[in-house]
Amino acid sequence: MKTVFVTGASRGIGKSIALKLGKDYRVVVGFTSSKDMADEVVEEIKKLGGESLAVQLNIADRNSVDEAFNLIEETYNHVDILVNNAGITKDNILPRMKDDDWNDVIQTNLTGNFYTSQRAIKKMIKNKWGRLIFISSVVGISGNKGQANYAASKAGLIGLSKSISKEVGSRNITSNVIAPGYIETDMTSFIDVENKENIIEQLSIKRIGTPEDIANMVSFLCEEESEYITGQVIPIDGGLTT
Ligand code: NAI
């Protein structure tokens, strides 16, 4: 059975991905501080007959990433599929953006995914098989007011993933980016009803996305049947960017 590591999997999109993949893969549930919530995800997977483990890590910290991978490799030997889902926002318009808000978002959303991907890919190269999936955002393609740091970090993931796809394609390792639009999670819970209606107005499919909409594509990209898809950016946004 293949092992999947999903970062930021105690809630939101990451949780949905972990639960979806829990039926077919061993799932490592990455979490930062909410151990209870991560344990619940692990229990849910186990109830369905799957195998799962919660592992604490801060992707922004190289040592923490190394410790997490050491533990995963001791338990399951290697990671076959890495879903780089964890991410943060610290929004402000550019003139008011603090250095810390810029640096934190870049360090977590971009550099953190460099750390996890570098660590996972070494064993994937040895095994001549692997899947890297980055959860970026449509704002990494289009930009967004008040999100220069976040959009830059998410755009950076596209360059990172495309480069990886070229480096390791010959070893049966694919690397792809999913770019979600508006998805109903804690990250978007600040959007009020009126703004939600305005957003839905812009969409071809007249609803906000669900974490399951993203999990379904992740699941497809993990399969053998998707081995010829690499270096791509796949928007899942109800038609927002068409
Ligand atoms: P969320 O805020 O519910 O989940 C983010 C997860 O990342 C949390 O579990 C958190 O603990 C984890 N995380 C944050 N910093 C971390 C760190 N330093 N180390 C390890 N884990 C860390 O948000 P949501 O909506 O589930 O987002 C998941 C991903 O999808 C994020 O990368 C986000 O940018 C992206 N996304 C979300 C959209 C939405 O509309 N909700 C739209 C486009 C992209």
Account of the 3D structure:
The chain contains eight helices and seven strands, in the order βαβαβαβαβααβααβ. The protein has one domain (3-182, 210-236): NAD(P)-binding Rossmann-like Domain (Rossmann fold). The termini are far apart. It has 242 residues and is α/β, with parallel strands linked by helices. Bound molecules: 1,4-dihydronicotinamide adenine dinucleotide. Residues 7-8, 10-14, 32, 57-60, 85-88, 108, 112, 135, 137, 180, 182-183, 185-188 line the site of 1,4-dihydronicotinamide adenine dinucleotide (NAI).
List keywords for this structure.
7 strands; seven-stranded parallel sheet; 8 helices; binds 1,4-dihydronicotinamide adenine dinucleotide; alpha/beta; 242 residues; Rossmann fold
Offer a concise description of the structure.
The protein is of the alpha/beta class. It has helices spanning 12-21, 35-47, 62-76, 99-127, 139-142, 148-168, 193-202, 211-222; strands at 3-6, 26-31, 52-56, 81-84, 130-135, 173-180, 233-236. Bound molecules: 1,4-dihydronicotinamide adenine dinucleotide.
- SSE pattern, N- to C-terminal: EHEHEHEHEHHEHHE
Class from secondary-structure proportions: alpha/beta
Which fold name corresponds to the CATH topology? Rossmann fold
- Taking Cα atoms only, what radius of gyration do you get, to the nearest Å? 17 Å
Poorly predicted segments: none
Number of domains: 1
Bound molecules: 1,4-dihydronicotinamide adenine dinucleotide
Mean pLDDT: 97
What is the helix content? 40-55%
- Assigned CATH architecture: 3-Layer(aba) Sandwich
The general outline is globular
- Spatial order of the strands in the main sheet? 3-2-1-4-5-6-7
Kindly estimate the percentage of residues that lie in beta strands according to DSSP.
15-25%
CATH class: Alpha Beta
Distance between the termini: 38 Å
Largest sheet: 7 strands, parallel
